[in-house]
Specification:
This protein is of the alpha/beta class. The protein contains seven helices and ten strands. The chain has helices spanning 48-55, 78-88, 104-114, 121-130, 146-158, 176-193, 204-207, and strands at 4-16, 21-33, 37-41, 63-68, 71-72, 89-93, 164-168, 196-200, 212-217, 220-222. A six-stranded mixed sheet has the order 6-7-8-3-9-10, with helices on both faces. A four-stranded antiparallel sheet has the order 2-1-4-5, covered by helices on one side. β9 (212-217) and β10 (220-222) form a beta hairpin. α3 (104-114) crosses α4 and α3 (104-114) packs parallel to α5 (146-158). The longest helix has 18 residues, at 176-193. It is globular. It starts with a strand and ends in an 8-residue tail after the last strand.
């Protein structure tokens, strides 16, 4: 691995409240390389989701420097950040965030509409087949299990051919067996397709299977021993 996709230097994110300033991330130095599978772990409130939002260009940093795919995004305007997200980044969320009135196929195609890209029905179908849902293409979310809905969400994240997938607690709402299956899909995408994946998780078993774990505590990158997860 030689290509650095994400480089954070002394990066902080501060929320200014009337009574005090809250540091969600504090002077972080992080490098993430092409083809890595990264697990971000830490106790609740440690800054995991905020870090994903920052790396996914959903939130701006307050100080320091952040490069995404070789571009300094530290002071980019929202329109520029949107373009980086659309062309390079896919998201998978704990709560799936599928549109309940759309079929699995239509949910997968949705990012193409938002990004004003051509609707590629065959590509969307093949992605659903890839995650094991060839038999659910025309089903609504309410007709599918939690694991199946998360598979749809993964296919949706892949439809724009992103360079990075950010998965925020993707197994958090699933039972152990189903969670392992979803993790297996992400792992296969990483190993077979070379897709860079950054995943937050509380699951020590899954985190231990990543290429590397970044431990957070109180908005800081810490050692495993300091993270309260040892």
């Amino acid at each position: 691995m030689t290509d650095t996709l994400i480089k954070a230097q002394k990066m902080s994110k501060v929320f200014h409240l009337p009574a005090e300033d809250i540091y969600a991330t504090r002077e972080m130095d992080i490098d993430i390389h092409q083809g890595e599978f990264i697990a971000i772990m830490g106790p609740s409130g440690s800054g995991k989701t905020t870090l994903l939002d920052i790396f996914g260009c959903l939130s701006k940093i307050s100080s320091g420097k952040l490069e995404i795919l070789g571009k300094d995004v530290s002071h980019m305007d929202e329109n520029s950040l949107v373009m980086i997200r659309r062309r390079n980044i896919g998201f998978v969320f704990q709560d799936f965030l599928l549109i309940p009135t759309l079929t699995a196929l239509e949910n997968v195609e949705l990012p193409l509409l938002f990004n004003r890209m051509p609707l590629e029905h065959d590509k969307a179908r093949k992605l659903l087949e890839k995650v094991g849902l060839a038999h659910r293409i025309n089903h609504l979310p309410k007709q599918m299990s939690g694991g199946e809905r998360q598979r749809v969400a993964i296919a949706r994240a892949l439809v724009t051919s992103p360079k990075i997938i950010f998965a925020d607690e993707p197994t958090g709402n699933l039972d152990t067996k189903t969670g392992d299956q979803i993790f297996g899909i992400l792992k296969e995408l990483n190993k077979k397709d070379g897709l860079t994946i950054v995943m937050t998780t509380h699951n020590k078993k899954l985190g231990s299977q990543a290429d590397r774990i970044i431990y957070l505590k109180d908005g800081k990158v810490v050692s495993r021993e300091e993270s309260s997860l040892s």
